[in-house]
Amino acid sequence: MKAPISVLLFALSALVAPFALHAEGVADWLAVEAPYARAVPPGQPNSAVFMILENRDAIDHALVAAASDAAEVVELHTHRQEGGMMKMRRIERIELPVGESVTLAPGGLHLMLIGLHAALQPGEWIDVDLWFENGTRKRLTAPVAAFRAPMRASGERDRTNAHVSEGGKDTAGH
Ligand SMILES: [Cu+2]
């Protein structure tokens, strides 16, 4: 009973593939710019991935999950000011408003790599899968690079500094 059904499903999926691809396949509405994972030395359990996500679709989207071959778990994180300190917090989703670019950068939104399988060394590459609310997904390959400031000149500086000063806690705690 099982085999014929799977064969049928296979044939069916071949027929509907072009449509399925559009409905819940690759997130071709998304442009990813400048992705990178922060290099960390051996023994560090966690790191983070940064990038710019541009929604080129005609409707709003949201990033709802992520995964990577480099870590056990990948969480969506942001930084929030709490009691005068910047703290990382897990969030359920990252909104991607239509026509906008959302920056994941040190001191702000990021993908948290938790439980690294190995040290992340500059020059290496890791795979990162992104899942979106509408069922589309995107796989990207991000280079591992040393910490670097976001590309924006002025407004980001304060938040970047806040993250740097938080570095020790970042390492010990989270
Ligand atoms: Cu984090």
Helix fraction by DSSP (H/I, runs of at least 4): 10-25%
- Taken as a percent bin, the fraction of beta residues is 35-45%
What's the gyration radius in Å? Answer: 19 Å
- Class based on secondary structure composition and strand pairing: alpha+beta
Helix count, DSSP H or I runs of 4 or more residues: 3
Q: Give the biggest sheet.
A: 10 strands, mixed
**First-residue to last-residue Cα separation:** 50 Å
What would CATH call the homologous superfamily? Answer: PCu(A)C copper chaperone
What is the number of independent domains? 1
CATH topology: Immunoglobulin-like
Q: Total number of β-strand segments? A: 10
Protein name: Copper chaperone PCu(A)C
InterPro entries: LpqE-like, Lxx211020-like, PCuAC_sf
Organism: Thioflavicoccus mobilis 8321
Keywords: Signal
Notable features of this structure?
ten-stranded mixed β-sheet; Immunoglobulin-like; 174 residues; alpha+beta; binds copper (II) ion; disordered C terminus; globular; 10 strands; 22% helix
Question: How is the topology of this model organized?
Answer:
Blueprint: H1 2-24, E1 30-38, E2 46-55, E3 61-68, E4 71-82, E5 85-90, E6 94-96, E7 101-104, E8 110-116, E9 125-132, E10 137-145, H2 157-165, H3 167-172
Copper (II) ion binds at residues 48, 77, 88, 110, 112, 174.
Signal peptide: 1-23
Pfam family, one: PCuAC
Keywords: Signal
